[in-house]
Amino acid sequence: MAEEIYSPGLEGVIAGETAISTIAGGLQYRGYSVESLADHCSFEEVAFLVLEGELPQANQLAAFRDQLNDAMFINSEIVETLGKLPESSSMMDVMRTGVSMLAHWDPETGDNSHEANLRKSIRLLAQLPVVMAARERLRKGKKPIEPDAELSLAGNVLWQLFGEKPTESFARAMDVSLILYAEHEYNASTFTSRVVASTLSDLHSAIAAAIGALKGPLHGGANERVLEVLQEVGSSERAAKWVREALDNKRRIMGFGHRVYKTGDPRAVYLKTLCAELAVGRSEFEDMEQIAETIEQAVTSEKGLPPNLDWPSARLYHYMDIPVDLYTPLFVVSRVVGWSAHVIEQHDNNRLIRPRARYNGKSERTWLPISER
Ligand code: ACO
Description:
CATH superfamily of the largest domain: Citrate Synthase, domain 1
Structural class: mainly alpha
Helix content: 55-70%
CATH topology of the largest domain: Citrate Synthase, domain 1
Shape: globular
CATH class of the largest domain: Mainly Alpha
CATH architecture of the largest domain: Orthogonal Bundle
Distance between the termini: 36 Å
Number of domains: 2
Order of helices and strands: EEEHHHHHHHHHHHHHHHH
Largest sheet: 3 strands, antiparallel
Strand content: under 5%
Number of strands: 3
Mean pLDDT: 96
Bound molecules: acetyl coenzyme *A
Low-confidence stretches: none
């Protein structure tokens, strides 16, 4: 038997290989720094890069956009069911159910070939914003809005939610947030998707499982709780005391800390600038920027914890008037790109993921008949 290596939470363990992204020396998707991609690319270009391995040429991007536009419609029976789910259903549960339903109508659900996986990934990328927006409108008693082929994917998210053509700055802010959320090597939800794919189960099953993993507040669910922190603190003057008390009470401050980035999350640094830009001229948002800055300084000086991507993204979405319980579903809308790329990579070179556990239960016990236990 090989030497036993154990690391709680698999911290620091290299659990597989990937050519999709790395966080060593800054976050890079397929070798490009995420900052340069956010500076220069659209989310569609980045999605193509993550899925296909190369940035698209103009004709490839046009064809990719056509594929997305063709797939941006979901079966009417799915829309109907989305409207019938209980009012109390969480939006993340709706997203998970949405993927499960889409699997029933996808023509290639059970085909794990590279080409079919790619086509399914593109369809899911196009369909998930439609699921999210349709449910959001139905629960408010409104009719879902059909996507507009003239808009970008990010623009369509806003269009389908609000029924108004987004401003350039909102469309760009949404686009950048989707780029930053798109991929992040072996995080908990991506690892989940790879474990499912490694049994040779299909892409939709892997994505449904990944959504379940993302939902938790230690992962994607954190961005919905960040706003509660900002609102609870309420003013810059209260921030330092609030942080000290929270840390004294061993409370986890949502949007801070990261398993891998111990000195700072580059995505958070990038998005912070965009938050400040969106807040300009709106006093309540400028105040929120100030509160966020004071909390950030206090958490960093008290505990040495830098903010993660969820810290600025919650503010960014708030400034765009997006309902709080759509923040993590928006993470899904973006991260489906990374999950899909990992499922494809896993299927293309598969080995069943089946680690061992260190047993710490009782042993050598003697069975007794039920009357004597
Ligand atoms: N608030 C307060 N204390 C924290 C926080 C936090 N957000 N994060 C870590 N700590 C503390 C821990 O209590 C621990 O303190 P101690 O050494 O005094 O006991 C120390 O920092 C180390 O923490 P670990 O739990 O070992 O760090 P780990 O790598 O397991 O945690 C995690 C990473 C889960 C993300 C954690 O930082 C956390 O819970 N953050 C809040 C939730 C969050 O923002 N999640 C989003 C992650 S990023 C993303 O999904 C885009």
